[in-house]
Amino acid sequence: MRGKGKQTIVWLLMGMLVLGLGGFGVSNFSGGTADVGQVGGVEISSQDYARALRAQKQEFAAQTGKQVSPAEAKAFGLDQAALSRLFVAAGLEAEANRLGVSVGDKAVAEQITSASAFKGLDGKFDRARYADVLKREGMREAEFEHDLRMDEARMILQSAALAGVTAPAPVTDLALNWLLETRDIHWRELTAADLPDPIATPDEATLEAWHKANADRFTAPETRKITYVWLTPEMLEDKVQVDEQALRDLYQSRIADYQQPERRMVERLVFPTQAAAEAAKAALDKGETSFEKLAGERGLSLSDIDLGEVTKAQLGAAGDAVFALDQPGIAGPANSNLGPALYSMNAILDPVNTSFEEAEPDLRVEAALDRARRQIESETGDLSDQIAGGATLEDLGKQGPLQLGHIDWTGKDEAGPGSIAAYPEFRAQASKITDKDFPELITTEDGSIFALRLDQVVPPTLEPFEQVRARVAEDWSQNETKRQLLALGEDLKMATDAASEPVVSPLPAATTPVAQAVGAAEAPQPAPAPAEAPAKGKPETGLARGGFIQGVPQAVVADAFEIKKPGSGEVVEAENRVFLVTLDQIHAAQTSGSEAEQIRDGIQNRLADSMRQDVFDYFARAVQAQAGATVNQTAVDAVNAQAQ
Questions:
Q1: What GO CC annotations are associated with the protein (predicted)?
Q2: Is 216 in the same domain as 365?
Q3: Based on the domain organization, do 468 and 557 belong to the same domain?
Q4: HEC letters along 574-604
Q5: Closest Cα to residue 247, out of 377, 353, 362?
Q6: How do residues 6-17 score in pLDDT, each as one tens digit?
């Protein structure tokens, strides 16, 4: 009985262990985990989800240049994106199975043998490498080949679903006409000089009320009072000794910078034959073409054929011809290692011949700074030990060589030259340090070192009116000027609109019955005087949507294309400036020509891609809804926990 009782207890404990492990997604004792979901009988394994999540993270890192932690990946929704991709793929696979869509072994074999990941050093498919790559990815060959087969089937199904999706021609034409429409406008900037009366001087009560009503403009930001010590190579520059032989060695190592022969800035255009090069040179001499056009005819840009700074020796056989030019011009045809070529010489660079004596001052500064950096590096360990041993920043400042300083840090002020706040390492540390943090020695990119301590945090505070009165007065004046300019602009806009309306003469007044009886003629009625249009300003013809006007904010151009009819005006406020824009004429888009056709093709492609994406989303959702999709959240959480 005791033996049977013990056996029963053991089995109960084992059962409880299995149930407990099941809560973490464990289905067996070999380390496998349960599927994370299924669509229409197509299962999504935990391994698939782990690989998809890893790929999603790698893709995100490639796009942003930053590796993400598991918490950041979850915050960015990368786990949901990976899971969504798997469910879409499973849904398409289930639909392909239902319809009997598949591909043969030949197509799968071609996919495998053409993959670069499975090729050996000879560039051919390597069977051993294929097995090794799959093993490292935790995949069986049969599983991988099944996935390849289903990828092809999914692509067939996707192509069939989207084959008939094209951009509607009316929508394309509408977008093309909207995009290529041009306009003629007049624009005028309104300034204080246009106001009928100068801006009045505000009294104290007005300024105090403005100060209170716009407190956010006169509130000092949070200020962090910081004590620091620092040491830069420049501080030690005059204290280190530099050996003259070391300077001469440095000069010799940099001799290529101090001794350079005459150079030319050259572009080279190679031709297939000598005759073609001579014909091109003749066309250039006659002014029938340009060097840039010749390059364009061969599918090249000037940057493609730019040789940069070259010496006579570097040009080889063409050196004599190019260096015979005493001013920018075309040389050749001359031979090159690629064939006959024309050379465009754009600038002459005089030879450089800097002696050691001339270079010595700069070399001495460079060597001194380098030695100072090494000296700082050698002292960093001892200084860190002193800080760890309880030395205060004040103690370090008294001992030297570190210099003691104080700064009121807001994070918004621009650092002046020679300020410690100019270092990004200091700004980063100053923004996050707390009063509980101990000073720590930090090295900057240029070899400087510093340590800092937070003494006090002053919260945002409204600056007293007496201290900022001048700023308040200037702010009020700017705001009042803008307000009056906007009002003036609206008046001018109304006058512009009124001047553009057609003048309608009133009906003649009826004569009295007595006048009619004696045959009196009707009295002539004067026509109303047309409204006088305000000055329009500067003209701009053929303005394209998204175009540019020199010295004018882009919002002026954008608002000019919002005006409904010619003759109307619009007041535009942009970058604290006020403009009056008048529409003169609307020109229909020129939809013929190669450039317009390229734009049309681009619009069609973008519209078609957008529509295909929408149709595919609807199709994928419908397939999942029809097949039935389930998610095992416990298994999903288990994979996410393992990724931690």
A1: plasma membrane
A2: no
A3: yes
A4: ECCEEEEEEEEEEECCCCCCHHHHHHHHHHH
A5: 362
A6: 444 444 444 444
